[in-house]
Amino acid sequence: MGVGVLCAVQGAAESAIVQAVEGSGGRLSVTRRCADLTELLAAAEAGLGGLAVVSADLERLDREAVDVLHRCGVRVVGLGDPTRPWLAERLAAHGADLVVDVPADADAVVREALGVLAGDAPARPAATPEPVPVSRPGATVAVWGPTGAPGRTFIAVNLAAELAALGLDVLLVDADTYGGVVAQVLGVLDESPGLAAAARAAGQGALDLPTLARLAPVVLPRLRLLSGVARADRWPELPGSSLEEVLRVARGLADVTVVDTGFAIEQDEVLSYDTRAPVRNAATLTALEQSDLVLVVGAADPVGVQRLVRALGEASEKGLAVTRRVVVNRLRHTVAGPRPAESVGAALARYAGEHDVALVPDDRAAADAALLEGRALREVAPGSPARRSLAALAAEVAASVGAEARTTVA
Ligand SMILES: Nc1ncnc2c1ncn2[C@@H]1O[C@H](COP(=O)(O)OP(=O)(O)O)[C@@H](O)[C@H]1O
Ligand SMILES: [Mg+2]
Fold first, then answer.
1. What 3-state class would DSSP assign to 102?
2. CA-CA distance, 175 to 283, in Å (whole number)?
3. Chain segment 116-164, per-residue pLDDT in tens
4. What residue's CA is closest to ligand 1, atom 9?
5. Strand 75-80 relative to strand 218-220: parallel, antiparallel, unpaired?
6. Residue ranges, CATH 3.40.50.300, the chain
7. Each residue of 350-385: b (16+ CB within 10 Å) or e?
8. Of 46, 98, 206, 278, whose Cβ has the fewest other Cβ atoms within 10 Å?
9. Atom number in ligand 1 closest to CA 145
10. What is the distance in A from the centroid of ligand 2 to the CA of 182?
11. Residue range(s) occupied by CATH 3.40.50.2300 in the chain
12. Whose CA is nearest to atom 10 of ligand 1?
């Protein structure tokens, strides 16, 4: 009997793979057909196989699962889906030994899998399992904006994805204490908020680079995510002093740390007498204070522009977001007139003294496709208007914070 194969393949490809394995002349044999990841991990832990063939979209298949398989001595071959190339990219980033496109030809998959076992497979993708400190301190960019869902998270997620695509090591931090949703937006199943754990470690003086890296899994090549607290009542887990330390350590882990923040920056006057009382807006205030650049995001409709003008004034009064770039999102002629860029630009120049604002078009098709798939725009709608303006914004942000891609772009 050859090497045992644990097969966790979904859909029609499953029987083709099983057949091809059985036709491998005895070098491989299927020892378990697994319905889900739990069954696969149990079979691996029981020592039932030396090779796992898995669908890239297998639920909960993350870096940790690939790690467990490796620790059990199981090599991992992933089957991608040409219509959703990001799945293969993500599985490669999780450390799979080989990712191949779904089997037009199952026999070819088996031949390549045999290559992996023989050790002549392409080297495992360099998905930075060990954190390599950045050579110089990384920059911090906060994405902030007024209430009314102007698209702070949308801008933060896609800015981070575009910066990573430029070859920068990026850490995306979800610091919205009114309900963090970044993990969900990026299609990551998230049971424990990484940011809360990092803040706890920071509070105990125990946050170092490896700890931060462990809490911030790679969700796309070069992009790590420190997920936030999805339940709004957990905000006391993110005290300002701890977040400050998290952001300090983050400068050693990433070239650019992008922080998605809440909207509110009021400080409770009563509470400010008691400096130990937790403050709900502390996370946002700290992110704004610690950032080298703040993107202030507003919506392009009349209400959104008015809120944006007010938010800019409030930030200036508090001495926050001094180095900033105003981003007006969801630009469309239906609410801003026939020449929306001009009218929004004129309003911001007149009422906020902002003469140069970045504009992101309203792009329902692309934004919805990204939400539906839980992916970034560049993955699901690379040619879309919103993506193009976010790619341009990322290049501009990288230049303005002086972030340089390393030579080894994956
Ligand atoms: N440029 C855009 N075009 C179309 N839809 C957008 C755009 N920006 C954001 N959205 C959508 O608007 C909604 C609110 O965005 P979100 O980023 O969650 O707001 P915030 O973080 O400011 O509360 C989301 O459904 C998002 O997909
Ligand atoms: Mg948000």
1. coil
2. 6
3. 777 654 444 434 445 666 777 899 999 999 999 999 999 999 999 999 9
4. 151
5. unpaired
6. 139-400
7. eebebeebbbbbbbeebbebbeeebbbbbbbbeebe
8. 206
9. 22
10. 8
11. 3-118
12. 151
- 280 — phi, psi (to 5°)? -65, -35
**Quick one: DSSP state of residue 272?**
G
Q: Looking at domain 139-400, which of 3.40.50.150, 3.80.30.20, 3.40.50.300, 3.40.1010.10 is its CATH number?
A: 3.40.50.300
What is the distance between the alpha carbons of residues 75 and 15, in angstroms, rounded to a whole number? 20
Share of the chain above pLDDT 90, in %: 61
CB 345 within 8 A of CB 315: no
CATH 3.40.50.2300 fits 3-118, yes or no: yes
Token output for 28: 């491989």
C-beta of 388 in contact with ligand 1 (< 6 A) = no
Report the pLDDT value the prediction gives residue 100, as an integer from 0 to 100: 87
Measured from the CB, is residue 329 less than 6 Å from ligand 1? Answer: yes
Q: Which of 144, 154, 368, 393 to mutate to test the pocket of ligand 1 (most atoms within 8 A of CB)?
A: 154
The mean pLDDT value for 249-273 works out to: 83
Dist. CA 273–CA 253, nearest whole Å: 35
Atom from ligand 1 closest to the CA of residue 331 = 1
How do residues 206-242 score in pLDDT, each as one tens digit? 899 999 999 998 888 899 999 999 887 888 888 888 9
Bridging pattern class, strands 293-299 and 324-331:
parallel
Which two three-digit tokens encode residue 386? 């919103």
Does any ligand 1 atom lie closer than 6 A to the CB of residue 166? no
Question: Helix (H, G, I), strand (E, B), or coil: what is residue 7?
Answer: strand
Under 8 Å between Cβ of 334 and 359? no
- Within 13 A of 8's CA, how many CA atoms are on the CB side? 29
Which three-class secondary structure string do you get for 165-186? Answer: HCCCCEEEEEECCCCCCHHHHC
The H or E element that residue 289 is part of is helix 282-290
Predicted model pTM:
0.76
* Per-residue pLDDT reduced to its tens digit, 40-64: 999 999 999 999 999 998 988 887 7
CA distances (Å), origin 345, targets 126, 309, 353: 44, 12, 10
Cα of 177 vs centre of ligand 2, distance in Å, is 10
> Does residue 153 line the site of ligand 1, with CB under 6 A?
yes
Ligand 1: does its nearest atom lie under 6 Å from the Cβ of 152? Answer: yes
Q: Is the CB of 387 under 6 A from ligand 1?
A: no
